[in-house]
Amino acid sequence: MCTNGLNALHLASKEGHVKMVAELLHKEIVLETTTKKGNTALHIAALAGQDDVVRELVNFGANVNAQSQKGFTPLYMAAQENHLEVVKFLLENGANQNVATEDGFTPLAVALQQGHENVVAHLINYGTKGKVRLPALHIAARNDDTRTAAVLLQNDPNADVLSKTGFTPLHIAAHYENLNVAQLLLNRGASVNFTPQNGITPLHIASRRGNIIMVRLLLDRGANIEVRTKDELTPLHCAARNGHLRIAEILLDHGAPIQAKTKVRSLKNRWMDG
């Protein structure tokens, strides 16, 4: 066995030597032996995209939902590396795409992060959405990934799906200054004035960030310029406190109430950090 914990089956699986894998399995090598990081031969084959080896291991009885030390499954690894055929085979043979890693990410989440459009589409079409810290559409909004966002909206037309903290994908797009996905969301029916419990709208966020184009887009789509947060902050307050002169001018030109006052004694940062 190697110093990193790989045995003969692991090495043959990594390199795609399916005949060697079959021979070792029939010599009664322990199928679920793990490396130091907790990876089985199936993890290794899935990560390497070795389709034939994956089939051999699964047909021999490998656990398709085995988790490594950090919670990675073979499906997660295949999704991470954009190995679509492996993803398809594992799903067809019982892989559970709701199994999350220690940090809460599923195969869908990692595929979204990596921009693997075909894997994302297949995972969604297979019928299960990953349970992640941010919903899938929020991740697409964060990455300004219009193609993935469009796929997600085809499967679920609700453009105002909420994160656990009460923000919509449009809030996220405004925060990350991602104009392309913001336009897509608005075109697909996202509420420009969606107000969560804290009262923060996308226009508040765009004004705070100082993105002129985003502010203009939101205003053109009907954003309420007088809307207030729970602490009575208007978009103009957000621009002023962050020194965004041009944003303030635009807001004032659109009729922002210049005399509006907040009710906070200490302007602490109560905004999402991403």
TrEMBL record:
GO cellular component, one term: plasma membrane
GO biological process, one term: protein localization to plasma membrane
Domain of life: Eukaryota
InterPro entries per record: Ankyrin_rpt, Ankyrin_rpt-contain_sf, E3_Ligase-Neurotoxin
Keywords for this protein: ANK repeat
ANK-type repeats, residues: 4-36, 37-69, 70-102, 103-127, 165-197, 198-230, 231-263
SMART domains: ANK (SM00248)
Keyword Magnesium appears in the UniProt entry: no
MF GO annotations: cytoskeletal anchor activity; spectrin binding; transmembrane transporter binding
Keyword NAD in annotation: no
Name of the protein in its database record: Uncharacterized protein
